[in-house]
What does this fold into?
Amino acid sequence: MTSLLEVSDLARAYPVATEAGARRLLHAVDGVSFSLARGRTLGLVGESGCGKSTTAKLTLGLLPATRGRVAFEGSAVTARRDSRWRALRRRMQMVHQDPLAALDRRLPVGQQVVEPLTIHRLEDGERARRQKALALFDAVGLRPDLFERYPHELSGGQRQRVVLARALVLDPVLLVCDEPISALDVSVAAQVINLMQDLQASLGMGYLFISHDLKVVRQIADEVAVMYLGRIVEQGRPDALFHSPMHPYTEALVSAVPTPLRGTQDRIILRGDPPNPVDRPRGCAFHPRCPRAVARCREEVPQLQPVGDGRLAACHLAAAAPATTAA
Amino acid sequence: MRNRPEGAASTLLAASASEPLLRLRDFTVAERGGAAIVRGVDLSLARGETLGIVGESGCGKSLTWLAALRLLGPGVVTGGEATLEGRNLARLSERELAGVRGGRIALVVQDPSSALNPVQRIGTQLAEVLRLHRGLRGEAARREALRLLDRVGIADASRRLRQYPHEFSGGMNQRVVIALALAGEPDVLIADEPTTALDATIQAQVLDLIRDIRRETGMALVLISHDIGVVGDLCDRIAVMYAGRIVETAATQDLLTCPRHPYTQGLLAALPTLDGPRRRLTPIAGTVPAPAAIPPGCAFAPRCPAAVERCGRELPALVIAAQDQRAACLRLAELPPPTARTPPEAAPLRRLQVPA
It folds into this structure.
């Protein structure tokens, strides 16, 4: 069975000018591979600038890739805006972080849920489209009387529900969500997380779920990929990754999560900022900040490879570690 | 000059002896001619104490402190009292107030790049604070500026002093803002979401820095955050705000393990965790009411699973629920405390780690 989404060696570089005026390449995403099955969720985590949002855009063909391949249900996704791409895009939708920015302020929210149906010429007639949109309103827990309201009349949680309804109205099989929870308050975020899980259980979509919040990702993802400077450094089941990380960067990310009542004596504090992707360090890109780097890390780029318990890690030290320590 | 305790230990002694350093009494904030946004807050902060304020957006957690420092301008009316060592901040002249802001009470806000002047060098901005609050000029100011940058972990300080904010990363800029806050040697640091704009590993760095500095200087801290994790990590005591009022306040450990107000319980149940079994989240139904639409009685009643008819009429007062724990719930006595739910990540209590 072909998986829903198959991404291999995906890369995107941008030409940039340095201060001195020299032309350089910024490798925003540099050789990312993963696959996603229907009904499953892959979480993509990392700090800003690690390439997670670029990966999302490349996956949907919103940006042309410099290298690599994206296959969606077996057919290649390219960034060419032709009828084939539009047909594919109907089945793969995106949910953004800020629902207010993602919605049209001058259009009633109900109309915005109807609009994709009109664009793709689905459902016969205005009435049927409205019926479909109202059904989606119901599915995401919005009252029908909100149909004629404008985005500014809705709360943050309601707006994000509208965005979800609009994405789901075309019956997609893949939903790419870029920080869908981050703009929401705690109590509302929990509502939306539960809603997303329920929708997935009933509709069987695959989620590519991008977030900087490890707790949210652990809640929703079946598998997690940690990105650093455009590459995946560790990938596996969330509990394996977060409870016994193999890559020192994952370890630092986990230990940086502020957790009430957890002692902080053994907290790993990384020094410095992530380096500029234009000046990607030689060897392992993480080595200048890595508390465990050895000489080899400065020279040799570690490959993402299996390290036991079905997990992948790109670290010279992880490969050497006995895989049995990870429970 | 001011009487400054040398370390955390003497701070604790001073705290027990004298009145609170900073106190809010029935403090209210309203838009001029509009609805009240902060509706009667009572809080006190002892010398050297760390107090966390949590709540969802729009609950008035930032507004309370901005209004207390009179930073909101004429469009806002305050009521009640905000006192610093017994002096009512509302009655200070502009000149006296200028000495308090930055000198006694420093403020660190969420977005460092908007807190810094983009067209002034970092050194100039530090020198201004040092001149205004410490009377330092010339070489003395420069030496102190270097020391401060060094203290907040900015390497190559003498070169950095000549740079502009855009030449720094977000985390570095927040360090500069903290250096600016420290420049006046304040007694209280009010940090409003100081790490929300920062990445995870940088957030950990900045929280660690604030913790270290606080231990060194014995400065009190008010940490405002929507993230109960951040607050629990750094504070001895937490106050939970909802719709412009404090609904619960307790020592961090008690608040997290034995919350008594249904809103606090709801907030904790809605949070995903990193440890323990993965369980379905329990969201709080509905949303935070807008200031103009705050229901009568207990503002949380429409969303509260334990609400009864009386909750829609009577405004609950903040009453003692246990030692050092207060909650504003009419049904406090009727509702049993949650069965000692030890959080999965329970580990040594942070309070005990403050050096003796």
